[in-house]
Specification:
- The protein has about 120 residues and is mainly alpha-helical.
- The chain has a domain of about 80 residues.
- About 75% of the residues lie in helices and about 0% in strands.
- It contains four helices and no strands.
Length: about 120
């Protein structure tokens, strides 16, 4: 009986050792993957910082003003004045009747049997 318990205990120790080794390997793999992801995140943040710097450089007001002046004839850009903006009361909001007419037109256009 004592020999059987010794063998079972040895098998349990071997099994637990294998499980611990396997978990160690999985943990090391996960750590390497996390380190790789951290490296990629750092590279992407650096790339994003470069893109933001380029965007800020390209959108400098003096540069844009110079480009607008150089391409004035071709683009026909005009300086903005207050007259270019409208008032809220100038916006035509659709009424319920307009919406019903639009829905009827859409429905008749999608149904070929209703067309003459």
């Amino acid at each position: 009986m004592r020999g059987l318990l010794t063998v079972l205990a040895a098998l349990a120790v071997i099994g637990l050792g294998y499980w611990a080794y396997h978990q160690n390997i999985l943990t090391q793999h996960a750590i390497r993957e996390v380190e790789q992801l951290q490296h990629e995140i750092g590279a992407e943040r650096e790339r994003l910082a470069v893109l933001r710097a380029e965007w800020a450089y390209l959108n400098r007001p003096d540069r844009l003003r110079e480009l607008a002046d150089l391409n004035f004839e071709r683009l026909q850009l005009m300086p903005m004045t207050p007259e270019h903006f409208g008032d809220v009361h100038q916006i035509a909001y659709p009424t319920l009747l307009d919406q019903l007419i639009d829905e009827a037109l859409i429905e008749s256009a999608s149904s070929p049997e209703l067309l003459p």
